[in-house]
Write a structure and sequence with these properties.
about 180 residues; alpha+beta; Aminopeptidase; 5-stranded antiparallel β-sheet; 5 helices; 8 strands; about 30% helix; globular
Amino acid sequence: MTEIRTPRLLLRGWHDDDLVPMADIHADLRVMRWIGDGSVRGLERTAEDIGRWEQEWDEEGFGLFAVELLASGELIGFAGLSVSEALPGVLPEVAVGWRIGSQFWGQGYASEAAHATLEFALQDRGLDRVVSVSRVGDSASENVIRKLGMVPEREMAHPVYGYPLRVHGIDLTEFQA
């Protein structure tokens, strides 16, 4: 599996010892507020999530990287590419996404990891276009999306929960790596 190093981060494959720290991130209401129905996830659900993320690597040749701080080796969340079966209104497009533990917010890690992911999409996977989907009102995610150079394209309702989502896109031939 591909590994990507940025000045402060290592984007890598998932290890067995990532389960507990990722479950801790999923147990934080502040992190999960904008995800799905906003409820937290336990160890079992997190293990299922990681298994699904690893399977996407096998099936698509891309997926969600575990994101680790280079300085400490600590897992801070994930970033990567996915095809969201849960959002049929976005299919078949590839989306860039991230989830970072709240204790690491405000330090530019999400932007750094997402930028590296877009470079990976363009240079390593040859994708022409990538989208990102945010829940309307999630200003922190929308700030990261703007830093990536992505522009709002349309809004749609979440197919299960009904709240508004905003789809942003970028033509990777115009992305400034």
